[in-house]
Amino acid sequence: MTARAGARHHLVSGARSHRGMRRLLNEDSFVAEGSIFVVADGMGGHEAGDVASAAAIEAVRPLVGLGVLAAEDVVAHLEIAQAAVRSIDTAAGRGAGTTFTGVVVAEQDGEPYWLVVNVGDSRTYQMSGGCLEQVSVDHSEVEELVAAGTITRAEAATHPRRHVVTRALGSWPAPEPDLWYVPMVPGDRMVVCSDGLTGELADARIAEVLREHAGPQEAADALVAEALAAGGRDNVTVVVVDVVAERGRAGADAAAAVPGAEDPWDDTLPRENREMEGVG
Predict the structure, then answer these.
(1) Where is composition skewed (Basic and acidic residues) in this entry (predicted)?
(2) I need a surface site. Which of 48, 105, 113, 133 has the fewest CB within 10 A?
(3) At the fourth CATH level, which superfamily is domain 2-256?
């Protein structure tokens, strides 16, 4: 699909979600439309994960048609999402929960920017100049161990507690989202995904697949297909968003004609790291 982003850019996006090869239910949800491109992953070990992720996405869906968004708008809707997930009925002593990550259209000093938001261990990446960089920081036990120098990044990939998240919508106290502003540059590509992708493919392979596929829908399809071929042990969801300059509108419209995420296959510049303070 194509969306306008400020006065000079258009966005072309594609998305794919699949339950994986071992799961009976897809607990991932996403929205990739208008001003917002986000993924929520109902967490394993929590009841009603599919309901939780869907509730979080529905809470932010009103942002879709609002154009350029302020951080305060996003945080306010995340608070609504938190309340919605907390209200889900589960068995005594257990609670629903979900990760939440992605990008929304924003501005800084009149210039188009991405606002990256993250709670949990789903990920948001930026590809610029053919190089892939993880923008979000995983809220997980192993990420804390890596940051502390206790284990290496390689050890984290197989650590027995690698799936334990330290922040999630639905937890209490309410989690504080991480927020960053990233310049919106024509030619750049943003990738938002659940850990069903990153648990199967290394970042280097994700980057290769992204370089091999010019269209965002093709790229999303290919990444999900590779994750499934690699084992598909979890639900996998991928959203790919390309930034296209205004003069590229005709090409963007053509790309938008690529089939979207709903078909019978479905089951359901370097970063400017300015973490916002005093928001939320």
Answers:
(1) 268-280
(2) 133
(3) PPM-type phosphatase domain (3.60.40.10)
Distance CA 188, CA 183 (A): 10
Share of the chain above pLDDT 90, in %: 70
pLDDT by residue (tens digit) across 131-163?
999 999 999 887 778 788 888 877 777 777 777
Measured distance CA(26)–CA(172) in Å, rounded: 25
Full strand arrangement of the beta sheet holding 189-193: 2-5, 9-18, 236-245, 189-193, 123-128, 131-134
Burial of 232 (0-12, 13-18, 19+ CB in 10 A): buried
What are residue 81's phi and psi, to 5 degrees? -65, -40
Encode pLDDT of 195-220 as tens digits: 999 999 999 999 999 999 999 999 99
DSSP secondary structure letter of residue 230: T
1 close to 15: Cβ distance less than 8 angstroms: no
User: What mean pLDDT comes out for the span 61-84?
Assistant: 97
**Do 244 and 11 meet the contact criterion of CB atoms below 8 Å apart?**
yes
